[in-house]
Sequence to fold (436 residues):
Amino acid sequence: LELGGRMSNYNTTGTSWTYKLLGDWAVNDWLRFRGGYNRAERAPNIGELFLSAQQTFGVNNRGDVCSTANPNTFSANPGTNPANGPGNAGGAAGALDVEAVCRALMAQASPDAASLYYGSPTLGVVTNPQAPGSFGFAFPTLIGNPNLSPETADTWTAGVVIQSPMDSGVLSRLRLSVDWYDITVKDAIGAQTVGAVLQQCFDPAFNPLVNGAAASTAAANAAAGNTFCQLVPRNGTGQLGNVKITYTNDGKVHLSGIDAQLDWGYDIGPGTFTLNSVFNYQMDFESSALYPALPMIDYVGTQGSGENGLNPNVFEYRIFTTVGYSWGPARVALQWQYYPGLEDLGEVTVPGGTPNQAGWPSYNLFSLNTSYQLTDDIGIRFGIDNLFNKRPPLGNINTNVTAASAATDGVLAGGSFLGAHDTNGRRFYLGANARF
Fold:
């Protein structure tokens, strides 16, 4: 039984208390149970508090909501935001209200920006293809927030470890561990997502002045004067400009899943065959950038939002297996990584999903590595990454667009994941270790 506690004091955020209660029970020589509870706190670091304005590269997890093809319910798309029709000057905010606010923001950048973006029969400007998806890239300017407070996390774990009770035979070196975890993070510290700032500007739940913005230029200008709208300006051609974001404590996160590891070895011929397999199953990956104003969204099986400092690409499960054979000073091993298919972000953020956006298929990646110990002090190693030169699959494909219509209707295909799928192709390495 392990009990622990700690008191920390920071001159920026004050006093924090953390504690834990962990247990480990060896029932016998081959069965062990483990688990417990842990309360953790993380005070904001110096960058999160005091970072000077810095341009970054990031994901826009809502796309361009000024687009009349954007699938979000707070966008200028009358198909997904049909609350008001022509001439409606009040009631629930709809596509016309959002477009009016967009035009007001564009006018702040250039008198011709709205015409260049939406088109203008008077000026002879043809409407350009507008982004249809709920995903894009941005170059937001990030700045620190000295008013941050610590984030807290409550973690529960429970697991079992099974060690083969046999002294000899095929199963004598078998070991299996399975652990369940459940983590809840409150007041999560994270850089605002571009999508969160966009929603706080254009969603009437956060900016009530959007309601009725289509009624007059004055109403649209008043809505566009909202603090968050001023953080998402448009440029001279009407496109989304330099977004300004900061760190906040507005997020909440809930994660749960199962980790498992299997190890096995057996003497075959002159050497030893080994197997190691690591498996993760993601049960929950829930997050809200503005809790409780926005509900928790479960991103399992999607490319994720990246909000609250979370990693993107939330695969439902992942497998990493290594089989090897050792013979004296030599060893050869084959590694296999498996990633299941993944859906685009809109599947969980847009009501009804995005049936016209194809996700990413499953992906297998193999690598080979070898080593040979020449002497006690000198060893060499050789390997091949991406053994079969597997191309990364393309995803985020708009299935409504054909190769012939791509020039006018939008982009046909998206891309692959830099963080999971291999984009470099087959490559070789050779190295040596020497001890003096």
Observations:
- Confidence is low (pLDDT under 50) at residues 85-91.
